[in-house]
Amino acid sequence: TNLMEHNLAPIPELYVSHESALKLKVEAADLTSHDLTPRQICDLELLMNGGFNPLKGFLSEEDYNGVVENMRLADGQLWPMPITLDVSEDFAQSIELGQDIALRDQEGVILATMTVTDRWEPNKAREAEKVFGADDDAHPAVNYLHNQAGKIYLGGPVVGIQQPVHYDFRARRDTPNELRAYFRKLGWRKIVAFQTRNPLHRAHQELTFRAAKEAQANLLIHPVVGMTKPGDVDHFTRVRCYEAVLDKYPASTTTMSLLNLAMRMAGPREAVWHGLIRANHGCTHFIVGRDHAGPGKNSAGEDFYGPYDAQELYRANQSEIGCEMVDFKHMVWVQERAQYEAIDEIKDKDDITILNISGTELRRRLAEGLEIPEWFSFPEVVKELRRTKPPRAKQGFTVFFTGFSGSGKSTIANALMVKLMEQGGRPVTLLDGDIVRKNLSSELGFSKEHRDLNIRRIGYVASEITKNGGIAICAPIAPYATTRRAVREDIEAFGAFVEVHVATSIEECERRDRKGLYKLAREGKIKEFTGISDPYDVPVNPELSVETENVDVDNCAHQVLLKLESMGLVKA
Ligand code: PPS
């Protein structure tokens, strides 16, 4: 890169002037509204503030096809990620092409208007294959695509009225143009950005130091606070951790800013996307590590991408990205020399002791309240993490029973509740199928839609209980695997989700017929009866499966308790 040409002039934004915004906001109140999802709000913010420059709105069909097929907009410009406005079929049908719609946040505030120029039903399987590398729901973005995103995409230019409001860490949030102005003011000509969705430990600090030195650049720590991988440490905790580490950097050459990006965990394509976003934020260099924005394992237990695929794709597109890659050296602690070194640069591997704590090992140590050594992290960071994540035996969790009607879910759940109350320490709530249908879901029937709604409500309450350190025991039929997975994700943000399949066969349930419902279902007097005239997806990987034929209730409940002990959720 020719740095003399490094251009920190403002980039285009999609906002109208303050005066026009006031007027437009009033006019927009009469338009058909779309309530944005959390991910769409993140996307819209970066569209409006120029973070997604050169995009001028949500992708048109032609742009979308180009992006999916070969990472290019219709005009040939590099853009690797579909930024699409997904909506329901009903909403899509309610509008006409050429119409303006209002885009509202979750409180109903109008953030922008969009002229709908395109409306189409995407081939989601194709998008999954091309963009994320596999049509496999184990990939968080593929799961989102199939199970959360609407069926229809709308495209068209956006007119920005106001930024989404953030009440947290306000001083740490900057638009691309604010960062550009800051760099201009400080006279920074070279800036290397560090993307992260994890707390920073010593190895990260070492590698960012080295990257800055190598590029002879200033450092921008640019963590994502929008949406990251389900199960990540929440951004409030992370930002407190970053602030604690920031003291260890030279203030005159390092700064930190929060990026409200919704990540897709798309590995190679994501790295290219991140680079473009950082170029828009005025950066000249970008750190790409091993397995950048990796989504974890696929459903066959293998990695979605090779560890250096992201670096390769980035390198191939570097000149167009406009932000030079600094590749991440995997840093390890060399005990004898008491310092971090890049693993590929160590010559005397056989004579020294290399120490490393993986993310999984760190989570285990936090969960079990074990020691985390000072060579690995900073005491201030560990303290913050422990504050958010007490050891597992003190955290909330959810036990989610699923199985046919009459399989024994409620009875086992009741027995488990009593056993947990005998132990004491945490409040226990039982969300039994029948109790929930009475108190939360009295208006619902047994269609797929209503069952899903019922389960999502249970999941919501259980996630709140889990978040607040209690134990939630749920015992619905929950026949649909995708819904159970969605509930799992909601809950795993706050604590463990223990799925217990009460595996009583349908024949046995019907033979027992404790409520006489199977008889009625056979006679057609109850429609859509699970196992008789309605589907049940057998859990594929439940934490536990219990047989109830020839096993008494106490023993079944005890099996669950043993499972909870083995997971460290209750003290042995
Ligand atoms: S679901 O699918 O998870 O929302 O079902 P759930 O809320 O657990 O409700 C299940 C109880 O409702 C009774 N019932 C039916 N079950 C299945 N299908 C149909 N059509 C139906 N109609 C009524 C049944 O007694 C279930 O009781 P449990 O507690 O499972 O034995």
Structural write-up:
The protein has 572 residues and is an alpha/beta fold. The chain has three domains: 18-160, Sulfate adenylyltransferase, CATH 3.10.400.10; 170-332, Rossmann fold (3-Layer(aba) Sandwich), CATH 3.40.50.620; 392-566, P-loop containing nucleotide triphosphate hydrolases (Rossmann fold, 3-Layer(aba) Sandwich). The protein is built from 20 helices and 20 strands. It has helices at residues 18-28, 38-48, 61-70, 89-93, 124-132, 140-147, 176-186, 202-214, 235-246, 267-280, 309-321, 359-368, 379-388, 409-423, 433-439, 448-467, 481-492, 506-512, 517-522, 553-566, and strands at 32-35, 57-58, 85-87, 100-104, 110-115, 118-120, 152-160, 191-196, 218-223, 254-256, 285-288, 324-327, 331-334, 339-342, 354-355, 397-402, 428-432, 471-475, 496-502, 544-546. Strands 1, 2, 3, 4, 5, 6 and 7 form a seven-stranded mixed beta sheet that branches. A hairpin with a 5-residue loop joins strand 4 (100-104) and strand 5. Helix 10 (267-280) runs parallel beside helix 11 (309-321). The radius of gyration is 26 Å and the shape is globular. The chain starts with 17 loop residues before the first helix and ends in a 6-residue tail after the last helix. Bound molecules: 3'-phosphate-adenosine-5'-phosphate sulfate.
